[in-house]
Amino acid sequence: MEATLSTSVKNIPISPNTKLEEILRTFDAQQKNRQAVKNTSAKQRIAKLKKLVDVTQKYRTQIEDAVYADLHKPAVETAYAEIYNVVAECRHAIENLNDWAAPHPVDTPLLFVGSSSEILFEPKGVALIITPWNYPFQMPVQHLVAAVAAGCTVMVKPSEFTPHTSAVVKKILTEVFPENEVAVIEGDHSVSTELLKLNFDHIHFTGSPAVGKVVMHAAAEHLTSVTLELGGKSPVIIDDTANIDAAAKKLTWGKFLNCGQTCIAPDYILIDEKKQAEFIAKLTANIKKVFGEDVEKSPDISHIINNRHFNRIKGLYNDAVKRGAKVEIGGQMDEANNFIAPTVLSNVSLDSKIMQEEIFGPLLPVISYKAQDDALKIINGKEKPLSLYIFSGKQKNQDYWLNNTTAGGTCINDNLVHISQPNLPFGGVNNSGIGKSFGFFGFKEFSNERGVLKALHSSSVVRPLWQPYGKLARLVTNLMIKYL
Asked: In this structure, are 243 and 213 located in the same domain?
């Protein structure tokens, strides 16, 4: 398999850091082209998105092979978690863009009788999209869809940690778009630093809260609007009414998809103490069933992205065990291949490092609670999460958990799947993110909602209030305050 992959991706050049003069030249070209792109019709933008779908499908094998080369990710996982999400996002925009981009009329209050008002969605201008390594194809291209639909020109900065996939992304986007409309800028963090010095009209960043603060600070220098997709510790609540067998199966998939390297991955489980033993038994049994006894030989699990992240996750594991955590399953590690087995930990101390920072790997702490308030204290004592998952069979309980927590998004009796519902906003709150993405919500992020009021040609609705003020102005003002 390795030889096949090498043959598939070896002819795609992996670029070094983009030079500063090239960045500035591209930015200038997009600035000069922004008005022309702004004036494109919905029909023209739809044609571009259709071409993006066609070219993505054309290079499907190269995408799968490149992601495998970077992350050891199974091809079917790349197909449904990366390629499908891009294609589905394009198709959703294609189907709805005429409505999104059309003027949106609004009601006319009595005070403004004779006039009409509407909201125009106009592109913000030149946008910057910075994406991480964990979903190296889906992230840059799916977010690009919203920017293209809105009519922006875009500079895309993918991760340097997934060079094979970034090269394929560049190949695809170069085939679909001219450089003065969409350009891929490759390189390490120093390239991102130079990009953030430029006066973009909007910045969309996906990554950690720590780097999100850096991006927001840089954007503030130009008063540039931002969308920040960050992360944090996304909790799972399993109460005493949950279907334990179903929860174990669903969480096996959601937690260990991409080897836990997912911003909305279940980060820790809070389970009613009466159900803990049953849940751990079914979860560990399902992990063995899915990945086999020799998990490192499983073709269905990714590896950790690099040695630095391997050692970070290993440190979380060692600290938890040192503080008394019990390894229910897993714990196997192979540093040479950046491999960590799916691992379930019980008896985890709340003071452990694993409970203080986002895991972003295949470690899953399971913590029991006696009363609902005990679980809430743990969740609400941390930053607001990007996602929260509730497994419960009672509507009353579901409402209780929803009403007493806050999260960017929530799934009830499942996990992760809300990100693929095109009619829901996706994003965090405060430390887990600012702004929303995907579908109409992503289109809005890259658009300026321009309010337009059309008055009568020869008169004004506020003419009685013109200076000099007299009895009529006083009368009209009194009526406005009393009735309008």
From this structure: no
CB atoms within 10 A of CB 286: 18
Judge whether 263 counts as a catalytic residue.
Answer: yes
Q: Please give the residue range of the domain that contains residue 444.
A: 2-230+436-448
Determine if the peptide bond prior to 105 is cis (ω within 30°): no
Q: Total structural domains in the chain?
A: 2
From the CB of residue 325, how many other CB atoms can be counted at a distance below 10 Å? 23
What is residue 2's predicted lDDT score, i.e. its pLDDT?
A: 36
> What's residue 400's pLDDT?
97
- For residue range 337-381, list pLDDT tens digits in order: 999 999 999 999 999 999 999 999 999 999 999 999 999 999 999
| Residue 156 and residue 191 in one domain | yes
Mean of the pLDDT values across residues 37-44? 98
Residue 325 phi/psi, 5-degree rounding, is -65, 145
Amino acid at 131: T
**Cβ atoms 268, 350 nearer than 8 A:** no
Same domain (yes/no): 88, 221:
yes
Where are any strands of DSSP class E within 124-274?
126-130, 153-157, 182-184, 202-206, 225-229, 234-238, 266-272
Which entry of 229, 328, 358, 445 is annotated as an active-site residue? Answer: 229
User: Quick one: pLDDT band at residue 89, thresholds 50, 70, 90?
Assistant: very high
Q: Are 122 and 450 in contact (CB under 8 A)?
A: yes
* Cα distances (angstroms) measured from residue 427 to each of 169, 255, 407: 23, 19, 9
Distance CA 200, CA 205 (A): 13
Q: What is the helix (H) or strand (E) element at residue 138, kind and residue range?
A: helix 138-150
Report yes or no on 313 lying in a domain: yes
Instruction: Return d(Cα 247, Cα 250) in angstroms, integer.
Output: 5
**Same structural domain for residues 7 and 77?**
yes
How high is the pLDDT of residue 14? 63
CA-angle at 164, arms to 63 and 315, nearest 5°: 110
Q: Confirm whether 64 is a catalytic residue.
A: no
3-class state of residue 386 by DSSP = coil
Residue 453 phi, psi (nearest 5):
-115, 130
- pLDDT of 106 over the 50 cut: yes
Q: Can you give the CATH number for the domain in which 242 is found?
A: 3.40.309.10
Domain co-membership, 192 together with 281: no
CA angle 422, 426, 430 (to 5 degrees): 170
What is the CATH number for 33?
Answer: 3.40.605.10
Let me know if residue 454 belongs to a domain. no
Asked if residue 395 belongs to a domain, the reply is yes
Catalytic residue among 90, 263, 358, 445: 263
Q: Say whether both 188 and 79 belong to one domain.
A: yes
User: Does residue 460 lie within any of the structural domains?
Assistant: no
Dihedral angle computed from the Cα positions of residues 72, 170, 262 and 95, in that order, rounded to the nearest 10 degrees: -120
Q: What is the reported pLDDT for 13?
A: 62
